[in-house]
Design a protein that fits this description.
two-stranded antiparallel ribbon
């Protein structure tokens, strides 16, 4: 076969024969029944993988039709890359990488080469046993050396000891990290009718996580109107909803305690109040940070993490209280970097709740009535 110029016409390589699509075309494949994502410019049809995705369907649905490279490298081990090729359908013709993403990926690669993601083991587990973060860290598979051992730690620390379903928690937590502080997609800022971290929740947004409307009705208006007073008391008892194994051994333990009903009731309230401190700590990192409405974008995933989190500065002896989760890392590209001390974090959280509470009292979709007026008249 002879080409126009007389040179031998070479057969096109598989790379050259590959289908090319634009970002606009890929964005059309963003539904549950037709879901494409791109990783490093390569496009994958993950529709069939959606119900089997270990991280749940919500992370994929939230970033559907987009390049998801930053989130992918943050969540997946190196072994996952080998699985991708079976779903590959095209290549992005207009693939671009921002300077922020480029630096983020370089940092992840340097950490991986240094083995910082591989140094797990029983020593780490033993050190975490002294804190309330064993369930959290094992849920991220960073405590034990194998997935199976991490899973065992999750079940013991989460389901059996803390009374929190680890399956529910991982679904919740993955959605939180992918859409950090998105009012309609991050379940960690969806607490109506008890709390509203932004007046935009007064519009009764639809939760993509719970798949229902978060109604801001008359009851929510009353509760949110005083949320800056109820925040700490609610956090003390927020874990009362647990799972079956927990409610088997915990009532037995209480029944075996010395003293009468009053002493046992005091023990129950105190035990939940102490562990509720951990819930308060989680709220510090997000309640007073920036929020937004809508799906996250795959090309600004790292930036969203920075805008939606707060670095809580504290002396080294207070690190046990935060479990290392108080640190955020950012010093380049002009991204906002929010940092304050422990007591200021408390104050900022309460100010955020109070500002929303005052707006809830002043307006909203719930009609005023005589009872409502009387409650507000007397504070």
């Amino acid at each position: 076969m002879v080409a126009v110029n007389g040179a031998a016409d070479k057969e096109a390589s598989p790379e050259e024969r590959e289908r090319h699509v634009t970002s606009t075309e890929m964005s059309k494949h963003s539904s549950e029944g037709d879901l494409w994502v791109a990783v490093q410019g390569k496009v994958y049809d993950v529709t069939a993988w959606l119900p089997r995705h270990p991280g749940g369907d919500l992370p994929l649905l939230s970033l559907a039709g987009q390049d998801v490279t930053d989130a992918f490298v943050a969540y997946h081990p190196a072994s996952t890359w080998r699985v991708l090729d079976r779903y590959r359908v095209a290549k992005l013709s207009d693939y671009r990488v921002s300077e922020v993403s480029r630096d983020y990926r370089r940092l992840v690669a340097e950490f991986a080469r240094a083995g910082l993601f591989d140094r797990k083991g029983h020593g780490c587990a033993a050190s975490l046993c002294a804190s309330g973060f064993l369930g959290h860290d094992s849920g991220h598979y960073v405590v034990m050396q194998s997935r199976r051992l991490n899973r065992a730690v999750q079940l013991v620390a989460g389901n059996c000891v803390a009374g929190i379903s680890i399956g529910w928690w991982k679904r919740n937590h993955n959605a939180h990290h992918i859409a950090c502080n998105s009012l309609d997609r991050d379940p960690d800022v969806q607490h109506l009718p008890l709390f509203a971290v932004s007046p935009r929740l007064f519009a009764s947004l639809t939760s993509a996580f719970y798949r229902r409307s978060m109604r801001f009705d008359a009851a929510a208006r009353v509760l949110v109107g005083y949320q800056h007073w109820t925040f700490y008391p609610v956090m003390c008892v927020a874990r009362l909803a647990g799972v079956a194994v927990f409610w088997v051994w915990y009532p037995w333990l209480v029944s075996r305690l010395p003293g009468g009903a009053a002493e046992r009731a005091a023990f129950v309230l105190l035990s939940f109040a102490v562990t509720g401190i951990q819930h308060v700590q989680f709220c510090f990192n997000h309640f007073s940070a920036g929020t937004y409405v809508g799906r996250p974008r795959g090309d600004d995933w790292f930036q969203k993490q920075m805008r939606g989190t707060l670095d809580v500065a504290c002396p080294p002896w207070m690190d046990w209280f935060h479990g290392g989760l108080q640190f955020q890392l950012c010093r380049k590209h002009g991204l906002p970097y929010q940092r304050c001390g422990f007591w200021e974090a408390n104050a900022r959280t309460l100010r955020t709740l109070r500002d929303a509470a005052m707006q809830a009292r002043a307006g909203g979709p719930a009609p005023k009535n005589l009872l409502w007026e009387a409650v507000n008249t007397h504070g």
